């Protein structure tokens, strides 16, 4: 059995990433994060695609060097087809198609959301406990908020998702209202750990089924801050930790209530999470607590595999390679692409 070497490319949002795998094992995973968006307070699609254009060749080069693999040894190229920003996806898609054509090797298309979930199967020698099918996965990031029933590698069903903002956006927009720089999620988390989560009460949305909504929360935080600063201009500075703790408490409660509902509906007690918001201390400790209180088994990937990365694209590429599931050269990127 000959070793399969896969080069994986991820460019769906604002991170340019390339990884090299030897069978299921990750040899390298290089990520170039785009700093340019910070000054705009959010990802600017046009700037993102230009930065991918600049980054992609050096990032791929680095990934090959770190893996100590020559491009002539590659067996296939896996790339993110969608969902994501069209201009960003086009860079990775066109690059991957050209390279596969030049090297005369197969092309493998990957759904970014499937990849976030299958990131639990990345093998870099350090991630040991993996979920078993079927399990529940909650993807929580700046672009996604979904609860997915994972029956098999490529048999997934979205049970619920956000009807408006993603949970990461809820963190970032709340942080912005408090005057914190973008992306404010990690900072809000930092202050939240120093405050009282019950200091202020924010309304939780009433959303049917397993769906989420975060836009109402953002508005209520805005009105709350406007009202309080009218009475006391220093309100935010004087109460920053408590405000952050209360916001985080509310968001984590919204997420946990829905996962609990999903567990109840499906009877499945293995719960996995992924996406940048998995770094949040509140959601992490709520999941840990549920292991004891509810008897769940929970799975949180290493942080570098929670945020956008090509290693997760690579593991999906490997699984598809084994099935002989290849893409044609006329394939195109898909901004909207369901699991
Ligand atoms: O997965 P990711 O890197 O990019 C995508 O959006 O796909 O996720 C980034 C999001 C941002 O909204 C960021 O504020 C949020 O994850 N985030 C956090 C924390 N760390 C990252 N939100 C809350 N608490 C954190 N510790
Ligand atoms: Zn993502």
TrEMBL record:
Its main location: cytoplasm. It comes from the Bacteria. InterPro entries: ATPase_NBD (IPR043129), Gcp-like_dom (IPR000905), KAE1/TsaD (IPR017861), Peptidase_M22_CS (IPR017860), TsaD (IPR022450). SUPFAM superfamilies: Actin-like ATPase domain. Keywords: Acyltransferase, Cytoplasm, Iron, Metal-binding, Transferase, tRNA processing. Binds 1 Fe(2+) ion per subunit. Belongs to the KAE1 / TsaD family. This is tRNA N6-adenosine threonylcarbamoyltransferase. It comes from Kriegella aquimaris. The lineage of its organism: Bacteria, Pseudomonadati, Bacteroidota, Flavobacteriia, Flavobacteriales. The gene is tsaD.
